[in-house]
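Model: Ready when you are.
Researcher: Fold this.
Model:
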Amino acid sequence: MTVLCDKGVFLCECHGSVSQALPMDAICRFLAQMRPDLPVVVADDLCQPGVLRQLAQEHGIKPLVVGACSRLSPKLGFGAKPEEAAIDPFSIRVVNILGESMAFPDGNILMERVKLLLWAQVARQAKSSNVPEQALRMRFARPEGKISRRDLFETLMPRYQVIPYVQTEKCASGERCHLCQHVCALNAIAVDDNRVSIDRIRCQGCGACTTVCPCQAISYPTFSADQLHREMEGLLLAGGNLLEPRLLAFTCRPPSDETKTGLFRHTPNIMPLEVPCLNMVSCCLLLCAFDLGAQGIALVPDKGRCRIGLRLEGWQDKVRFVQELLQQWGIEPRRIQALEGSDSDIEQRLGQFARDIATLETTPLRSSQPLIVSTGGMALPSLILGLTEKLAPTGTRVVSGDCVPFGRLKIDISQCTGCGLCSLDCPTGALSLVSDTRSCQLLFRHQACVGCGQCVTVCPESCLHLKKILELERLDKPAEVIFASEIARCHRCGAPIAPRAMIDKLRARIAAAQGTTTQLDICPACRTKSVSGAAASMIGV
């Protein structure tokens, strides 16, 4: 883990509301045990203007994680960009320990939850990065309900929101890859001269584009896959039996930036993980959570709907796919659920979900060593393969349906000409055309296919057929040859011309139109010489 000696944790007593319910010294000892080099400062009134900045200056450390109340988060980003603010609001993670102390009166449960919540944010910040200008979007707060005059004034001031941006040096460009553009429901991703960019006015920061980019070219500085993975590790840290079976809830961050601690007051073993939108919760992230030991996962939208207005089916498809995989591995599919409804409905359903999971046996993944798999790009096939080997399931090992983010390509070899347009438009490299002077082959890698269908759309012969399916036994197999043709050679000089299948196809079409096909077996160079020779003889040269 990266050493951050110049940064530390700040804990607020909240006028005794926290310190009376939570022994601060025990929290400090726990954090010191986990990170001996990490300073911890206990103070009061951190939500008051200038207090956090003054404490940071006095102790000579920058805030890394702050345990305080929900009033602090909105004030951190008030009115200034990171470089203009006294404290960079995007380099700090806030844990609402006051809300936790109010939701969980049992001191032992409260202690364990706060430990995990604080440690998860400390671990997460080890993967934090600077926020560049192109990742900042100006916005104005939208107040809900009654507000004070002071709060009204603050809503009139601009705030800055972090959104994804494209790292052009990694991007495959819009020439062949449109996956991010297709998944963006707000049309915020544009392709101009094969250059992909994100419109900062339209973008709402849902992060859905980050889950489909095969090149890891879309960066989300405050919600990277590595950050979320580290946070999950912290929340699922093995400990006592108070918070078992350990469950995880991906929650959609409300516009007010306030953690909805109240949803979990009857289910202390459900640990919340906030994301900008549930559409950025990838299948890879969900499977990593199970691999890290989560006994159940709930996806909880804000107020039962997507605040950005995106369709709910986006994450429901991922839930169904993971359920199908769990079924294949002999793990109960009901361990993952997408919950919808009002806050009161969801609170009740979370309670029922926790009680249901408590009746199940612990998954074998809780006691196994987690896989070391990259959390970005094309990590999903490797993760699925690793979990399949670890769990050693028996059965068909096939998952099919519209929810499957993989594809199996079939080709009508009687119609294919070997033109290779499909491979040029394949965004993930699942299709590739390999040729030399003797033959050409079209290769297909099942583990790299995301089922986007771009190859089917671009095929001029309509000879490709895609099925949304995952065949587990093919994930570690080399690319298979789905089409092969010898290379036709010039009758005069022997130079390679084109795939024999293409020549034969052209010959059949020209013959059907009663045309002449003799020139098809001659290379362009010899054809040019023939034309030049005929022209020269005509003018008597």
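Researcher: Now this one.
Model:
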Amino acid sequence: MKLPFFSKKEKKEYFLALLLGEEKVSAVIFQEIHGTARVVGRHEEHLEQPLEDTPFDTWLKVLDKAIGTAEGSLPPNVQTQKTIFGVKENWVEDAKIKKEYLVKLKKASEALMITPIGFIVIHEAIAHLLAQQEGAPVSALLLEIGQKVLIISLIRAGRIIETRQEAIEVDSAKTADTLLHHFNYEVLPSRIIVLSDQQNHDVLSQSFISHTWSRALPFLHVPQVAILPKGLDAKAVFLGAATQMGFETITDKDVLHAIEIKGKEDTEVLKASDVSKEEDDIEEEEEGFGFVMGTDVREKKKESEEEETNEKEVPKENNRIEKVSNFVPVNAISSSPSFFNTILATISPIKKIIMHTIKKLYIPTPSLAFLKNTPFKNGGIILIAPVIVIILIAILASYVLLLKATVTLFVKPKIDEKTQTITLTTKDNTDFSRSTINAQAIDVTENGKITLPATGQKEVGTSAKGSITIYNKTSQKVTLPSGTIVTSPNNLTFSLEDSVTIASASGASDAFSSISPSTAKANVTATDIGKESNLPSSTVFSVKSFATSDVAGKNDTAFSGGTKKEVTVVSKNDINKAEDSLTKNLQDKAKNDMNQKIDNNTVLLPFTANTEFKTENTDKKANEEANSFTLSGTIAYVGVAYKKDDMQQFSKTLLQQDVSDSAFIQDAITYTLEDTKQEKGKITSTLHATISLLPKLDKEKITKDIAEKSFDVTQNILVNLPQVTSATIQLHPNIFFLPKTLPRLSHNITLVVKKE
């Protein structure tokens, strides 16, 4: 005898997830059997132009080809109609598809003979999938890189805050850098997640890692870049849609691999023999675009299964043209499920586990005759159902009592700065009220020498010499002492080597006048060196203090012996320069020796307060001819040092004027001294003090506020706390099919605060 239980056929239903990207269209066919969904076909087609620039007819043909190819894995006479659309973030506003895109989807649905049952935002689905994989909501920059267009979504705590796109000009990294300047936020997440269809992920990853990001971008540190597997967008939409519809998904690696590769070659294909003839009649599709708001997708599915349809088989063709009525634009599938949907998604797997356990506990009967005397239909007797209920209650109670969570808050420190001019003195004690810091003098003595080239210039040579005849035309005897100056017509001067006496004039002479002058010979030497004094013969000379008409001189023969040349000598400036250079050369050694004299709590100022030559010696004198010279000496250096504790305490006193201890805690105080200089016997400097302030958070109150709250509500509470930029939540144990809710008991929540 064949029992009805064994003759019942498996009921299979097929759904289409259609991803409408900026440069490509992806169609994913998944099958649902008894609440479990798995992918059975996938295909993607690329657009020659960005979506907004592609004509509708061309876009429709691409959609038709993608769907038709993906349906190649289905049994004969089976065609998908119930469709979940994956759309771009800018297509949606206030949880609804914008009117202009709604009209476009309506026309496409009518032409392709598909029945829309909801939509999901692609980037939200990816963020949701990453949060499931990592166990906490994601804060990152999601970059979708196409051939011509780059799209960036800013994700904070699992929510998309803003999305922008731009045409790729030079390369993806530089385009991303430019586009990020349009995100006007104080801080951007230092994590970049890249979704791309490029084959060589290593090249793409290296281009981002080697890129130097603009300093104007508000990254707290160099962003970390991760490349997502190819096809993860389709995987995310499939898993997100299946979860919202209350289906379990087959998560083994072989099946999920089918969603991460291009084409259907590696996708598990159902054979026609696997489908019963009873499935030849396709259930009638629900009318309207999407679900009515507030209606659960699983309830609608259940109603459609209970209705019998006599609709004829629809032949499978690439050209799907049918009319769909009652176009109702509703977002039935969202990446942020309602609490009700979450509970349903949780109950479904628990129910299956319970039923599976109960079946295992049935006691089989040896004959059908015994079945007639039992009130049970399936041939077994439940003996320990109450025990199972008690066990389940105990497990649930243990879960509630033992569930723990670690909540990590990332806070951005508040920076407070102060600037103050201070005086460092070796004479007075530290006085914060007068901005005076006590300092101590540190002295050392250093020996050294330095050799420098001589740069002075000096003329050397010999003076011209000769003999002149001195004529006296006066009536008086003239005596000229040694050294008397005689001057040539070109103003060259000569001095008499010896004194000479010339008698008074008498008689006549053709040379001067009717009076005959007296004469005397005298030797002269030029007062300046140089060949210019080598005068020719018959040169007339004037004699100092006499008119040429009274006393004059004339050389009978030319002067000779005058020479001149220029030589290098040690100048006074050379010696001064050597003193400065030696002082600087020994300064570093002096500072090192000074540092040896102070302890770790003392800081030496970067300059020396005083230097003095104790001894000094040069191997060449000033104006002495030489090409180089050496200076040696002993120099005394005096430095100034201050105590770190004094400067740290003064910085703290300065900063605490604006810090409220009830609101902030101090993290670290740093200070720098700038523009330090010595004037009129005192040293002044500009103190720049900085403090990093962290908020004082009431951890006990926070854990009570977030106890038993969902992850989304908790994130909203936490990011509104002072200086908190983001938060992560980890459950222990983290059971994937249970709702993401924090422990009921606040003391089971551990709050960790970290600097961002």
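Researcher: Key takeaway?
Model: The chain has 17 helices and 31 strands.
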